[in-house]
Structure formats: C-alpha cells, structure tokens
From TrEMBL:
GO terms for molecular function: ATP binding; glutaminyl-tRNA synthase (glutamine-hydrolyzing) activity. GO terms for cellular component: glutamyl-tRNA(Gln) amidotransferase complex. Gene3D superfamilies: Amidase signature (AS) domain. InterPro entries: Amidase (IPR000120), Amidase_CS (IPR020556), Amidase_dom (IPR023631), AS_sf (IPR036928), GatA (IPR004412). Keywords: ATP-binding, Ligase, Nucleotide-binding, Protein biosynthesis. It holds the Pfam family Amidase. The keyword Nucleotide-binding applies. Residues 25-468 form the Amidase domain. This is Glutamyl-tRNA(Gln) amidotransferase subunit A. Its EC number is 6.3.5.7. The active site is at 79 (charge relay system), 154 (charge relay system), 178 (acyl-ester intermediate).
Length: 492
C-alpha cells in the first residue's frame, strides 16, 4: 500500500483493527518516507527506527491478541522537548545535545501505554523560545508548503512532519503560541489545552506557568484522538488538574455551530501588521461559520496592546529561573578546559545556549533583580490578571472568541527579523497562555503565495471538547484541512 500516509487517524485505527495492514507495514512506510523526504524538510533530530519497528511488532501482537486500544500501532513524532527514556532529548539545544533521559515524560509514557509507535524526535526553536524553528544548533526545518519558508515555531518540526506526511500526528507544546502558530503556518489543526489539562512532567520547562502540551494533526478529529491520550491528571505534576477528562472523540458532534456565539474582538482586526490576505481568509471562514448558523458578535478586548510586553517579561523571567540548572556541572554541555568554576559556568552557558536563549535569560534576570522586581515582574503579573479578566468578561456574552493565529503567513527562512519584530508576530497567541485558556488553530485557506492561513478559536476554561467540535463541524463543511503540500504527495 503506497498511500497509507493519506489516511486519517480514524482510518488508520480501523485499518489496523481490520488487519488491512499491520503496524510494521505502516511504520516501515513512514520510515521510508522520512529517509527520502526529510532530507528536504529537515524536521527530525532523531529517528528511532529500530525501536519503532520493535514497538510496531509488539503492537501487531497486541492487536492479534485482542489487547489493542484505539491507537495501538499508530506512529507518532514527539517534539524534542519531551523526555524519552533511552533516547536523546535535546530541547533543540547544544546544552543538551547528548542528554539521554532516564525516564519518559508523562505524555510519552501515556502514548506508549496506548500502543503508539515513536518514529522519532523533531526539531524546534531552542528551549521553545522562538517562532521559526531556525535552530542555531540543528539547522532550519523547512515549511512543506514552500521549502524557502519557515514552518513556524517553536513546534515547527511537529508541524512540518505532519504537513509533509512524515508522521500522522505529533505532540507539540505551547507557551505563547508554539502549537497554534506552526499549525497555522503549515495548514494544520493544533490544540493548546487549558493550563493544567496535560501533564508537564518530563516536558523541559521554558515558562512553567504557561507551558502546555497538546496535539498537532490534520483535522480536529485527528487531534481529538491524540488528546484522549495526552489529557488527564498526573500526580507527578502539581499544576495538572484533577478534573474528569472528556472523551474528545465521541464529543466531536456535541457542540452545534447553530446558535454558537462567536466574539470578534474589534482590536484584533485593527492590529498594525495584519496581512490583508490573512484578514480576508479569516473573515471568509467566519462568514462560513455564520452561514452554518453561528452568531458573530463584536466584542472588546481592551488589553490587546499589553499582551506582548507582559508575556515578554513573565516568560523570560521564568526562563531565567528554569534555565539556571544548566550549569555544565550536574548535566548539560560543559566547556573544554575551564580554568576555574566561574570560567566553567560562563563558558558552558555561553557556548551551550544560542543567542535568543541568552537574550531571554538576560531579560528575565534583569526583570527579577532586586530594585527592578516590582517595576517589571510584579507589574506584569498585575497586568496578566487584567488580561485574564478581560477574557472572562467577554465569555459572559460569547461562547468562543475568533482571531487570526498569526498576523502573517510563514516568514522566509533567514528573514532575520529583529527580536521585537519577531515578538510582535505573537500578538494573537500570547494572551491565551497568560490567561491559561484553551485555543485551537484551524486551516482556512491560502494567501497569494499559496501559504496556509489559520483561524484561531479561543474557548473558556476546559472547553477543549467544544473547540474541537466546532472545528470538526467546520471541517465537515469545508476541505481546507484536506489540502496537501506538493512534497506530501511525493511517494517514497
Ligand atoms: N514565539 C513565542 C516565544 O518565542 C512562543 C513560544 C512558545 O509557545 N513556546 O516565546
């Protein structure tokens, strides 16, 4: 079978259950595609072929013995920020380029327990800080829609593997948009769950109060299958919430678009730098939802201008604290021939971290330092609360809030935007993480250069089922999510 990579998660699950193909065949199919096509896309940091085939054989045995779960035998790619026992976990950094984790992240362990086959670990912005996956240590992953463009970031490898059909779905993480923006740039569906829904245990920390793992795939239905595996309380993560988990797959038709009140924030559509094509595609998708019965309601989110400065104080502050542990002593990269302890710290950290990571550590350290703490960090925390309240007020009147996921389509590789220009590209995603809300990206068409455009829907706390359901119904009525980049059509 040469077209296994065109099947949806449901079709793959049914095909395996009905013995139309085995997990070994499916896994070999993807490994072949990776060997041929990933030389161009450059999304995998590590391909775990041997382990994948062993897992596939075990999955085939389980299916034969009648012990299979829905996803037993399906291949997956993990963002290289999730610890994988016995397999290198780099977080996209030279600091960890020889780190073999002694344990699995909970998300990885849950995947294994569900019978998923790990194809490998995929590229990202270093320590998830960035929006392009132009990684200074592992190279730039390419956007499958146009290899001269970035796939977005930080979960750019996860987006690229799915868009090029080098994995049927992938895990990502989102601290300030890192699932939604690459999903938008690569024409995929990606869900950032409510903070606390998915365990952060074994997920290398960037900004702990905002980091959240989630699924990236072609459709809401595909994401729902992976969400069923990823979500849930974990005693090993004190911020994971003890709350019953929905069955995201069986809830896919539970929310009707008919009568759904969609808030359109006035401020979001007047943002300077919002590309005309992006605006047009997003508005067309909202029109379509309106035709399907949704009610569009103009709303105000008055704190919009505060999103970027607030996030870019809090996230670096947390990062500077989280990244202290990489000192070249206990683990992590260690410089050659240190003359004394201070030299060891200094050189290990300046050689092991790339420029952007160093910039954020410096910003964060400054914001937390005595004398500046109240003026920056404490102030940012207060503004964060106001941003959250702004959303809660909006949700008194609407069910979901619509926005672009990003003001533009995918940047050119090497565009070399200044840090502040880069940060402004996160305008539509950051507030969701500051408030801890769930949000989803859905593909809604293309710009004049045939690069994908994404619609973002933001929900109230714990509304993952609703978001998936709304996008699922939109995807039943449209076919943007079925479009494939030319490189995905190539056979191995
Ligand atoms: N682009 C944002 C940043 O650089 C978001 C990254 C993320 O969500 N991990 O911080």
């Amino acid at each position: 079978m040469s077209d296994l990579h065109r099947l949806s998660i449901r079709e793959l699950s049914e095909g395996l259950a009905q013995a139309k193909f085995s997990s070994r065949e499916l896994t070999e199919h993807y490994l072949k595609r990776i060997a041929k096509i990933d030389t161009q896309v450059q999304s995998y940091i590590t391909v775990t072929a041997e382990q994948a085939l062993a897992q596939a054989d075990a999955a085939d045995a389980a299916i034969k013995a009648g012990h299979a779960t829905t996803l037993t035998g399906l291949p997956i790619a993990h963002k290289d920020i999730f610890c994988t026992q016995g397999i290198k976990t780099t977080a996209g950094s030279k600091m960890l380029d020889n780190f073999i984790s002694p344990y699995d992240a909970t998300v990885v362990a849950k995947g294994k327990a569900a019978g998923l086959v790990t194809l490998g670990k995929v590229n990202m912005d270093e320590f998830a800080m960035g929006s392009t996956s132009e990684n200074p240590h592992f190279g730039s992953t390419k956007n499958p829609w146009n290899l001269e463009h970035v796939p977005g970031g930080s979960s750019g490898g996860s987006a690229a593997v799915v868009a090029a059909d080098l994995a049927p779905f992938a895990t990502g993480t989102d601290t300030g948009g890192s699932i939604r923006q690459p999903a938008s740039f690569c024409g995929l569906t990606g869900l950032k769950p409510t903070y606390g829904r998915v365990s952060r245990f074994g997920m290398i920390a960037y900004a702990s109060s905002m980091d959240q793992g989630g699924p990236m795939a072609r459709s809401a239905e595909d994401c729902a299958y992976l969400m069923n595996v990823m979500a849930g309380h974990d005693a090993k993560d004190s911020t994971s919430v003890q709350k019953e988990v929905d069955d995201y797959v069986s809830n896919l038709n539970d929310t009707s678009v008919k009568g759904l009140r969609i808030g359109i924030p006035k401020q979001y559509f007047n943002v300077q730098g919002l590309d005309a094509d992006v605006k047009a595609r997003v508005e067309e998708s909202l029109k379509k939802l309106e035709e399907m019965g949704a009610i569009l309601v103009e709303i105000n989110l008055n704190m919009t201008e505060a999103y970027v400065p607030t996030y870019y104080l809090i996230a670096p502050a947390e990062a500077s604290s989280n990244l202290q542990r990489f000192d070249g002593v206990r683990y992590g990269y260690r410089c050659e021939n240190p003359v004394d302890l201070m030299d060891l710290y200094k050189r290990s950290r300046s050689e092991g971290f790339g420029t952007e990571v160093q910039r954020r550590i410096l910003i964060g350290t400054y914001a937390l330092s005595a004398g500046y703490y109240d003026a920056y960090y404490v102030k940012a925390q207060k503004v964060r609360r106001l941003i959250q309240q702004d959303f809660l007020k909006a949700f008194e009147n609407v069910d979901v809030i619509a926005a672009p996921s990003a003001p533009t389509t995918a940047y050119k590789i090497g565009a070399n935007l200044s840090p502040t220009e880069m940060y402004l590209g996160d305008i539509y995603t950051l507030a969701v993480n500051l408030a801890g809300l769930p949000a989803i990206n859905a593909p809604v068409g293309f710009d004049k250069n045939n690069l994908p455009v994404g619609l973002q829907l933001i929900g109230n706390y714990w509304s993952e089922s609703q978001l998936l359901s709304v996008v699922h119904q939109y995807q039943q009525a449209t076919d943007w999510h079925t479009k494939r980049a030319a490189i995905a059509e190539e056979n191995a």
